[in-house]
Amino acid sequence: MNLPPNPELSLYQLVLETLASPESLTITPVTLKSLVTATFDLLIDQNISATIWVKPQGEGWHREIKPA
After folding, report:
1. CA dist., res. 31 & res. 22, Å (int)
2. Which of 34, 56, 62, 63 is least surrounded by CB atoms within 10 angstroms?
3. How many CA atoms are closer than 13 Å to the CA of 46, on its beta-carbon side?
4. pLDDT tens readout for residues 1-49
């Protein structure tokens, strides 16, 4: 990594300068559901307490994400 000419820049500024613009990623609803399910499974398996905000369309997911 090349150091910037200005050593007074904060770490945040350095990261902003080196990050490329993120590319958008289009996924199907099935893939999104799979990713969310995998995240839930990981949190449960690792006993990680988390707050997850979701707003899926329709009622199908509502039943699945209700806390037990």
Report:
1. 20
2. 63
3. 9
4. 565 566 677 887 777 777 776 777 888 888 888 888 899 899 999 999 9
Full 3-state SS string of 3-51: CCCCCCCCHHHHHHHHCCCCCCCCCCHHHHHHHHHHHHHHHHHCCCCCC
Q: Which pLDDT belongs to residue 9?
A: 72
Give the integer Cα–Cα distance in Å for 66 and 68. 6
Does this model's pTM top 0.90? no
The per-residue b/e assignment along 32-52, b for 16 or more CB within 10 angstroms, e otherwise, is: eeeebeeeeeeeeeeeeeeee
| Domain extent listing, the chain | 11-65
